[in-house]
Specification:
The chain has a single domain (11-243), classed as Rossmann fold (3-Layer(aba) Sandwich), CATH 3.40.50. It is built from seven helices and seven strands. It has helices at residues 20-31, 43-55, 70-80, 103-131, 152-172, 190-196, 215-226; strands at residues 11-14, 35-40, 59-64, 85-88, 134-139, 177-184, 237-240. The radius of gyration is 17 Å and the shape is globular. The protein starts with 10 loop residues before the first strand and ends in a 10-residue tail after the last strand. InterPro entries: NAD(P)-bd_dom_sf, SDR_fam. This is SDR family oxidoreductase. Belongs to the short-chain dehydrogenases/reductases (SDR) family.
Length: 250
């Protein structure tokens, strides 16, 4: 059953909704009454999540699309239709030293992490502005500000999304559309498990909390940013990293 009506009557598009943070975000928004358009690449997983949300009292539908493809990204926007909330949660990370990375890897990460949000906002934000309301959230990453020996392309793509957030907040803010970024630190997801394998415990040493985050914790931050409680928050980067960035010199 829905646990809140804060987002009743709103429609949300969540990219990367079939796993990890995106899945938790989609479930949370549905519980608050939003009709959720779920994006992913795996139709079976997407349709299974639609049924799961319905069993919980929510409403959702699934649209498959490859965000590495510009035309497919624009098709996703068209099929989503008029939305009040856009959560760009889909992300691609291929951690490797720069010399071991190729052009195709760089292009894929920028396409999914930076270009896809750019295209979706360009397609959907004008409609929000015409209706006088809307909220857009980019799921960024602390990697944009926490350099490491590997993952330069990923960090750059997420830093680009932060810059876009500030520009969009300025471009659309006066029209009633807010744009913000939530920047997670280490979070235990299927993706990080696949990437780190037996070294997953490393995530628990990456911040001042002494543990990795849970996707549901990031979803709560997203819900705050798209909801009425954050009506005066625009152009912000909200860090949900357990204190990871507190280790950086000021």
């Amino acid at each position: 059953m829905s646990t809140s009506t804060a987002l009743q009557g709103r429609t949300a598009l969540v990219t990367g909704a079939t796993s990890g943070i995106g899945r938790a975000v989609a479930q949370n928004l549905a519980r608050q009454g939003a009709t959720v358009v779920l994006h992913g690449r795996d139709r079976a997983r997407g349709e299974a999540l639609v049924k799961e949300i319905a069993a919980d009292g929510g409403t959702a539908r699934f649209v498959a699309a490859d965000l590495a493809d510009a035309e497919d990204t624009l098709r996703l926007a068209a099929e989503a239709g008029a939305v009040d909330i856009l959560v760009n949660s889909a992300g691609l990370y291929e951690f490797a030293p720069t010399a071991a990375s190729d052009v195709a890897s760089f292009d894929r990460q920028v396409a999914v992490n930076t270009r896809a949000p750019f295209l979706l906002v360009g397609a959907l934000a004008p409609g929000m502005a015409e209706r006088g309301r809307g909220s857009i959230v980019i799921v960024g990453s602390s990697a944009a500000r926490m350099p490491a020996p590997v993952g330069a392309a990923y960090g750059a793509s997420k830093a680009g999304a932060e810059v876009l957030t500030r520009y969009w907040a300025t471009e659309f803010g006066a029209s009633g559309v807010r744009v913000n970024t939530v920047s997670p630190g280490p979070v235990r997801t299927e993706g990080t498990q696949a990437m780190l394998g037996e070294h997953i415990a490393m995530l628990d040493k990456a911040n001042a909390r002494g543990r990795a985050g849970d996707p549901d914790e990031i979803a709560e931050v997203v819900s705050f940013l798209v909801g009425p409680a954050s009506s005066y928050v625009n152009g912000a980067v909200l860090f949900a990293d357990g204190g990871e960035l507190s280790a950086l010199p000021s």
